Amino acid sequence: MPTESTTDNILVRVLKSVFFKNATGKASRYARNTGSLLQLLKDVLNKTNALKGEGYEALREKVGVLARLLKAYTSGEYKAVPWKTLTRIIAVLIYFLSPIDLIPDILPVIGFSDDIALVIWLFKAIGDDLQAFRQWESQRNTVSID
């Protein structure tokens, strides 16, 4: 795993990169097309499930939360997602899925450091919205158990 200062350095480069700007440009189109968004989620979940090793467990958990949020959003069950948050999530997932980005995924170990840095940034940037979703999800699960 990269150190915090390395992660910050990578993150700055990723956020300024043409690759992330391209992903951000595509995000609103995905947000408006349920079929494309669900296919993106499927592809991202397949990619994270294929990652082997203990170091990727936290990444899989974080992507799982994002997937649940987006599935609830696309089904109409959960609409309390600000547009900026929605497009940020989608942009990060598009970037994550792309094998050609700031640090290509084909490079052993280091290839996912930019993706991991971006997911960590996303969770910090949308923390309040994720907390609201998790609270909604918890309440919904409690109600359905009763």
Summarize, please.
This protein is mostly helical.
Mass-distribution shape: globular
Largest sheet: none
Secondary-structure element series: HHHHHHH
Distance between the termini: 42 Å
Q: Which stretches are low in confidence, meaning pLDDT under 50 for 5 or more residues running?
A: none
Provide mean pLDDT, rounded.
87
Tally of domains: 1
Topology:
Layout: H1 4-16, H2 18-31, H3 34-50, H4 57-75, H5 83-97, H6 113-125, H7 127-145
Helix pairs in contact: 1-6, 2-5, 3-4, 3-5, 5-6
Explained architecture:
The protein is mainly alpha-helical. Helix content is 75%, strand content 0%. It has seven helices and no strands. Helix 2 (18-31) crosses helix 5 (83-97) and helix 3 runs antiparallel to helix 4.
